[in-house]
Amino acid sequence: MRKLESRKIVVASHNKGKLAEIDELIGPFGFEAKSAAEYGLPEPPETGTSFEENAYIKAFAAASATGLPALSDDSGLCVDALGGQPGVYTADWAEKPDGSGRDFAMAMRITEDRLEQAGATAAAQRTGRFVSVLCLAWPDGHAEYFRGEVEGTLVWPPRGERGFGYDPMFQPEGFDITFGEMDPLDKHGRTEPLSHRARAFALFEKAMLG
Questions:
Q1: Active site members
Q2: Is residue 182 part of a domain?
Q3: Is 89 a domain residue?
Q4: Which of 52, 58, 61, 112 has its C-alpha lying 20 to 30 A from 67's C-alpha?
Q5: Is residue 195 part of a domain?
Q6: Alpha helix stretches (DSSP H) within the chain
């Protein structure tokens, strides 16, 4: 495994919620991190069919454009009753019909409608997981991957104003509150990582910084 020698990296994302969460996770390690948006980089088309493929597309595009190691995250919600959907298309479900941006309240409503159509009304039928794959790519094309997952249940109606994306309808296993209701410090894990992204970062930290 290639080690990360530089503390200057690019965070290959334009998603403000994701950038804020990543900043909270890597901040304590002394990284000088700027986002792809700050470098004025365009968002590359995510044409992969897996989280790993899409994470690499984003990280390598940023690394090759800046000459710096780049860290990306591709993540999504995989719902068992929907055959693993939305999966890599999690953000696409939030795209507004007029192309003016993303509406995750709409995306959660779509998810709920499809669960109801599938007859998934009992909690035991509404299981799923958040998946996060981090990709650290270098300008020469080399990449390392770190995958984190958290199991949970999809609830309706959504609860809480914290977090972002589908957090208000995802109740992690072992808890009676959603990610949308959870203190960010608890979501990231005060004693051990809880969220999918925090678990992926724990693996990143151990491999790259340990």
A1: 74
A2: yes
A3: yes
A4: 52
A5: yes
A6: 16-26, 51-66, 104-117, 184-188, 196-204
68 with 8: CB under 8 angstroms?
A: yes
Which of these, 103, 98, 126, 123, lies nearest to 114 by C-alpha position?
126
CATH number of the domain where residue 201 is located: 3.90.950.10
Q: Is residue 3 part of a domain?
A: no
Q: Which domain holds residue 127?
A: 8-209
Going residue by residue through the chain, which has 210 residues, state the pLDDT in tens, using 9 for 90 and above: 998 888 888 999 888 877 787 887 777 777 888 899 999 999 999 999 999 999 999 999 999 999 999 999 999 999 999 999 999 999 999 999 999 999 999 999 999 999 999 999 999 999 999 999 999 999 999 999 999 999 999 999 999 999 889 999 999 999 999 999 999 889 988 788 999 998 998 999 889 876
Pairing of strands 70-79, 8-11: parallel
**Using an 8 Å Cβ cutoff, are 170 and 77 in contact?**
yes
* Tally of domains within the chain: 1
